[in-house]
Design a protein that fits this description.
This protein is of the alpha+beta class. The protein is built from three helices and three strands; from the N terminus they run αααβββ.
């Protein structure tokens, strides 16, 4: 019974198959490219978080670093993204107890360009706060 229905579906001559294909194909292509774009954005977001964490670990090992040294560590760890752009910043702050902290921040911007639609900017930030060592030597 099932084979008979499938055989009838293959040999139909009423012209509905091209119309169904014309309706379904653009939706299918849109979904495939949507998954690709979302994957690229999430990959860039994950990489920015990884760069911040890696830079924080390296910064933690420096003894009494300056802001320029921390910025150099951050610049050394960042690779150019496949899609989008990174913007890095470093600030040094001191809490009430006198402990110094470095605030590492990487902003990730992904520009989504769809024909006939205004460009969409997807922005995110990855940041961490690192206590700075000051070992008397």
């Amino acid at each position: 019974m099932m084979g008979h229905r499938f055989k009838n579906w293959l040999v139909r001559n009423d012209g509905t198959a091209p119309i169904e294909g014309a309706v379904v194909f653009p939706i299918l292509i849109f979904c495939i490219f949507g998954v690709f774009v979302a994957g690229n954005y999430l990959m860039g977001l994950n990489m920015s978080q990884r760069y911040v964490e890696e830079s924080a670990r390296m910064t933690r090992m420096l003894n009494n670093p300056t802001q320029a040294e921390i910025e150099a560590v951050l610049a050394d760890n960042i690779e150019a993204p496949m899609f989008g752009t990174y913007k890095k910043s470093v600030t040094i702050s001191t809490d009430q107890a006198g402990q110094r902290f470095a605030n590492l921040n990487i902003g990730y911007t992904y520009l989504l360009e769809i024909p006939f639609i205004d460009p969409i900017h997807l922005n995110s930030e990855s940041n961490t706060r690192v206590p700075l060592r000051n070992i008397p030597g």
